[in-house]
């Protein structure tokens, strides 16, 4: 019984450390808890989230897989796994996972949104646009979706449309990561140096 209480207290401590963004310390506490009780899928998923913060995406993939071994139908954990599959370059695997989620819940917008990112990296831009359209039917104000389709448009040198989509992402989420930087880069690619300079300054 004392071991179980110790595990619970370590998980609580890991959450407190995570809130303080002390990721390495949080990981240490959570792994100690999992060593005592390896059968809680949420603990494995939390470990994956901390590993994401540490940018250890390969290990995060394994953590999410361990969580899904214990709770195979958890859509949130499947989504987190798919996102990290994209991060480590396993795009087809990510698409497969997200398509499985769609079968379970056709109105779950992230299953379409993150396929925009995966298909963009695969160079399948028509599929990316199809997923963007479907995502928009469910949630028209998703900043992630606008960012992902902007990346697809920029890959095809459709810079004005890409800039518009990054600007939409910023309208929805004013602190959206990298959007201002990407807008500046798109202006620079068009040799619009004054606008690019303004964009880089805005990104500071």
Explain the overall architecture:
The protein has 204 residues and is mainly alpha-helical. The protein has a domain at 141-204: Tetratricopeptide repeat domain (Serine Threonine Protein Phosphatase 5, Tetratricopeptide repeat), CATH 1.25.40. Helix content is 80%, strand content 0%. It has twelve helices and no strands. The protein has helices at 2-19, 23-36, 41-53, 57-70, 75-87, 91-104, 109-122, 125-138, 143-155, 159-172, 179-189, 193-203. The termini are far apart. The model has no long low-confidence stretch (mean pLDDT 95).
* Contiguous runs where pLDDT drops below 50 for at least 5 residues: none
Main sheet attributes: strand count, strand direction, barrel closure: none
Instruction: Give helix and strand order, one letter per element, not per position.
Output: HHHHHHHHHHHH
Q: What's the mean pLDDT score?
A: 95
Number of helices: 12
Helix content: over 70%
CATH fold-level label of the domain at 141-204: Serine Threonine Protein Phosphatase 5, Tetratricopeptide repeat
CATH-defined superfamily of the domain at 141-204: Tetratricopeptide repeat domain
Cα-atom radius of gyration:
19 Å
> CA-to-CA gap between the ends?
52 Å
CATH hierarchy: architecture of the domain at 141-204: Alpha Horseshoe
Number of strands: 0
CATH class of the domain at 141-204: Mainly Alpha
List the helices and strands and how they pair.
Blueprint: H1 2-19, H2 23-36, H3 41-53, H4 57-70, H5 75-87, H6 91-104, H7 109-122, H8 125-138, H9 143-155, H10 159-172, H11 179-189, H12 193-203
């Amino acid at each position: 019984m004392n071991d179980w209480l110790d595990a619970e207290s370590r998980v609580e401590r890991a959450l407190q450390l995570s809130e303080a963004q002390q990721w390495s310390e949080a990981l240490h506490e959570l792994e100690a808890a999992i060593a005592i009780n390896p059968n809680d899928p949420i603990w494995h998923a939390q470990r994956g989230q901390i590993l994401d913060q540490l940018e250890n995406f390969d290990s995060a993939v394994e953590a999410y897989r361990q969580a899904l071994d214990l709770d195979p139908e958890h859509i949130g954990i499947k989504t987190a796994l798919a996102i990290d599959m994209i991060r480590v370059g396993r795009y087809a695997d990510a698409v497969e996972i997200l398509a499985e989620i769609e079968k379970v819940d056709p109105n779950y917008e992230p299953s379409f949104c993150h396929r925009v990112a995966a298909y963009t990296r695969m160079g399948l831009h028509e599929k990316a646009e199809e997923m963007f359209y479907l995502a928009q039917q469910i949630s028209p104000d998703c900043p992630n979706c606008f960012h992902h389709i902007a990346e697809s448009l920029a890959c095809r040198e459709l810079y004005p449309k890409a800039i518009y989509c990054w600007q939409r992402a910023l309208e929805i989420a004013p602190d959206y990561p990298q959007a201002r930087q990407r807008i500046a880069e798109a202006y620079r690619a068009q040799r619009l140096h004054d606008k690019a300079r303004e964009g880089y300054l805005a990104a500071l």
